[in-house]
């Protein structure tokens, strides 16, 4: 019986999360808390007896560093890691670098909420969650899922919205449900898949 294990981890708190800024494809570092969250994710996985064969992450340093810190805690620093832009955070376009309160002053509370929480309305110059799904999902199907189905134990460290795209498919959530789904930073979500790629079980370590 193969594991068919897929673990998703959202990066630890970044400097811009702390400052309440829209981040997107900008590349701020982890805060001290973010470093601790990443280490804690690795420690919790180790304590539960998890080991991995391959890893995937985005081209943004906050996700890469989260993965590195977690693997160090796991004692698995030599694993193959694939970095790909398909797993990057949603591109917030003109909102990137803006404080969320300033954005509300500029465009209005209602409009900013639509950009943040609608499924298919992109901010100016940026991506909607639907757009993010359109690049993340094919990468998952072509590169990540085959590894899982071959019995590899796969760890993915990425971002709130790129992971939402995967969770939407894994858990068969509607567009309305996925935009409401909150992902805690540094809290692994553990999926075991059936041979047909459906989910056999899910454990969210945030709860």
Write a structural description.
InterPro entries: His_Pase_superF_clade-1 (IPR013078), His_PPase_superfam (IPR029033), PG/BPGM_mutase_AS (IPR001345), Phosphogly_mut1 (IPR005952). Pfam families: His_Phos_1. Pathway: Carbohydrate degradation; glycolysis; pyruvate from D-glyceraldehyde 3-phosphate: step 3/5. Belongs to the phosphoglycerate mutase family. BPG-dependent PGAM subfamily. By secondary structure, the protein is an alpha/beta fold. The chain has one domain (5-204): Rossmann fold (3-Layer(aba) Sandwich). 43% of the residues lie in helices and 14% in strands. The protein has eight helices and six strands; from the N terminus they run βααβαβαααβααββ. The protein has helices at 15-18, 32-47, 61-74, 100-107, 109-117, 129-149, 160-170, 175-180; strands at 5-10, 54-57, 81-83, 153-158, 189-193, 199-204. The protein has a six-stranded mixed β-sheet with strand order 3-2-4-1-5-6. A hairpin with a 5-residue loop joins strand 5 (189-193) and strand 6 (199-204). The longest helix is centred in the last third of the chain and has 21 residues, at 129-149. The radius of gyration is 17 Å and the shape is globular. The protein starts with a strand and ends with a strand. The mean pLDDT is 95.
